[in-house]
Amino acid sequence: MATPVPNRWLIAAAGVVMQIALGAVYAWSVFRIPLTQAFGWTISQITLTFTIAILILGFAAFAGGIWMRHAGPRQVGLAAGALYGLGVFLASFSGGRLWWLYCSYGLIAGVGLGLGYIVPVATLVKWFPDKRGLITGIAVAGFGSGALITAPIATRLIAQVGVLQTFAILGSVSFVAVIGGALFMQDPPEGYRPAGWSPTAAQQKQRTARMCTLQDAMQSWQWYALWALLFLNTTAGIAIISQAAPMAEEMTRSTAEQAAAMVGLIAIANGAGRLLWAWLSDVIGRRSVFLMMFPIQAAIFWFLPSVQSFPMFTALLFLILLCYGGGFGTMPAFVADYFGAKNVASIYGLMLTAWGCAGVLGPTLIASLRQSTGRYHEALLTIAALMLVSAVIPAFVRPPTVAGAQETGTTVTVS
User: What is the pLDDT of residue 208?
Assistant: First the structure.
């Protein structure tokens, strides 16, 4: 008897639960003041914890992608839940030891983040060949919106039980949520296609390569072009995320309360952009999405230094974060289109190192220029020029060609 095929939408829902739990890392800013007040650490010292976690995420995602090829998504997802939950829980024992916080929340939880992030993305793109952009957008939108759920809960917990006990509670909840979602993760049967679906002419046009291995992908210039697209788009957005509140207070004379509300609003843009642009990429193509996002951001960053109105400033940052999220929502489908869905876990997993590198460059660039010039104007104009130059890449990138126009069954040779 044939094994029944599970409901793919149930797997998608489980993947979103995993991503929401993991996306709690974006709520890190709510711990900054309580940790400063409790232990006297500087803002830079506390922020480094988040930087370590994001940097480790990129490299752990690659390791998770390689592991998935041999063990499948469920085992990797279970390990992710155990490590992320444990890392956050162990942060509750940091006390006055900064190195413990770096090792627990930064290193251990960061590894769990990377392993867990790649599992739903790489699994769902195989279950939804008919809706690649939409489904990856839905999955990573969960990660982007995780802070919306976690931030208010963590804030109340900190007020009631203290910052360290809050780490223990959040770590325990994350452990259960990620592992619970991971239990539903599995790859579709070989050759799976949704009933009654066949690729459209537009889909076939942007999906010329099939079943590339990681080695195949690394031998093509297209992989490096896509890495650069993700790196450059993320650099701009994460620079804004790192400085949004103080930038708003300085440039628009807003209050701290107004700036905090703005941070919550642009967090919505981060999640919404992952879904909106990913859905649009199914309609107009992945290249066209990036061709739109880079010039839009270039214009906004160029205009920002002259903005003094708080509502206008908030609206422009909302658009930037829409584009920031759009890069994460669109890129998994972009990779699957160019290199096939079979090995997307390792191919896209390695590409997520762009996230880690951007997480270092973006905040460092804007902070150092602000420190040296005494204002944000030069940093914003520098990023505007970077976004304008970045638009060249999607203008020229094309799917890898198949040597001899033949597939080899499981892999193709790309050039």
Answer: 53
Q: Are 30 and 190 in contact (CB under 8 A)?
A: no
Burial status of residue 187 (CB atoms within 10 A of its CB: 0-12, 13-18, 19 or more) = middle
Closest Cα to residue 80, out of 101, 55, 57?
57
DSSP alpha helix (H) spans, 72-90: 73-90
- Over the stretch 342-366, which tens digit does the pLDDT of each residue have? 888 899 999 999 988 998 888 888 8
Percent of the chain at pLDDT > 90 equals 52
Tell whether the model's pLDDT for residue 294 goes beyond 90. yes
* Element (DSSP H or E) covering residue 231: helix 221-252
- Quick count: other Cβ atoms within 10 Å of Cβ 303? 13
Question: 34 with 333: CB under 8 angstroms?
Answer: no
Query: According to the model, what pLDDT value does residue 313 have?
Result: 95
Locate the domains of the chain by residue range. 8-182, 201-405
Q: Considering the domain 8-182 in this protein, what is its CATH number?
A: 1.20.1250.20
Give the single-character DSSP code of 189. P
Which tens digits make up the pLDDT trace of 64-96? 999 998 899 999 999 999 999 999 999 999 988
User: What is the number of alpha carbons within 13 Å of residue 384 lying toward its C-beta?
Assistant: 14
- The pTM of the full predicted model, rounded to 2 decimals, is 0.80
pLDDT cut 70: percent of the chain above it: 92
Amino acid at 307: V
Q: Check if the beta carbon of residue 199 is closer than 8 Å to that of residue 349.
A: no
CA 30 to chain CA mean position, Å: 20
- Residues whose CB falls within 8 Å of the CB of residue 220, separated by 6 or more in sequence, listed in order: 212, 400, 414, 415
Predicted pLDDT of residue 130: 84
CB-based contact 104:94 (threshold 8 Å): yes
Q: Give the chain's mean pLDDT.
A: 87
In CATH terms, the fold of domain 201-405 is Growth Hormone; Chain: A; (1.20.1250)
Say whether 308 sits in a helix, a strand or coil: coil
- Same fold: 8-182 with 201-405: yes
Backbone angles phi, psi at 401, to 5 degrees: -90, 155
According to DSSP, the residues that pair with 414 across neighbouring strands are 402
**What is the spatial distance between Cα 322 and Cα 55, in angstroms, rounded to a whole number?**
22
Dig out the tokens for 114 from the structure: 């990377």
